[in-house]
UniProtKB/TrEMBL annotation:
Name recorded for this polypeptide: YpmS family protein
Biological source species: Geobacillus jurassicus
TM helices/strands, residue ranges: 7-26
Keywords linked to the UniProt accession: Membrane, Transmembrane, Transmembrane helix
Phylogenetic lineage: Bacteria, Bacillati, Bacillota, Bacilli, Bacillales
Pfam family name, one: DUF2140
Length: 191
């Protein structure tokens, strides 16, 4: 074999290899599969909490909503849901305490039932006090008092926290200190 023939064979092999590489490099790539678009209003997370953490969040929210009203109150979760305020009677503050049993209702809202009400050491009639609170307490729009059925309805799903965050209750077992809810964070684009 002479060198000219070997040179042209090597040049042909090199050209074939270069063409194969060029064809491989410039081949169209398969399309990237994107996740299906879901029709959701945001990202939803399941949150497990304890009474102490929820007490802090509830009272921060209430302090903001009622900061300019003379009747202040606080809420805490223990064996029941407690609402406490001081009412001036004959120039002295007397503690009014209302307690309820919470129940998660359809849609993630909460109904507070089986109320007990005390003013200082006295037990008070539930319907009368609930009527008074319905008329005079600075309640958020998401809380509705139903004196006739001795209950309070809390529309958790209507409450919007900072940046539009929304919560919905899933489970409230105060005895076991298990509180489960979903937190929906709105997104600017639907996924």
């Amino acid at each position: 074999m002479n060198w000219k023939r070997a040179f042209w064979m090597l040049a042909a092999v090199n050209a074939a290899v270069l063409m194969a590489i060029a064809v491989w490099l410039f081949q169209p790539s398969p399309p990237v599969k994107q996740p299906a678009r879901l029709d959701v209003k945001g990202a939803t997370f399941t949150v497990y909490s304890k009474k102490a953490h929820l007490n802090a969040v509830i009272n921060d929210y209430l302090a903001e909503k009622t900061k300019h009203h003379p009747l202040q109150y606080r809420v805490w979760l223990a064996d029941r849901v407690y609402v406490s305020s001081e009412i001036p009677i004959l120039g002295r503050p007397v503690e009014l305490v209302v307690s309820f049993v919470p129940k998660v209702v359809k849609g993630g809202n909460v109904e507070l039932t089986e109320p007990t009400i005390s003013l200082g050491d006295w037990k008070l009639p539930v319907t009368y006090v609930l009527r008074y609170l319905q008329k005079h307490a600075p309640l958020p729009d998401e809380v509705a008092i139903d004196p006739e059925h001795a209950r309070v309805y809390v529309a958790l799903t209507d409450i919007r926290f900072g940046n539009g965050y929304q919560v919905a209750a899933k489970k409230m077992d105060l005895a076991a200190d298990e509180i489960v809810f979903t937190l929906t964070i709105p997104t600017k684009q639907h996924q």
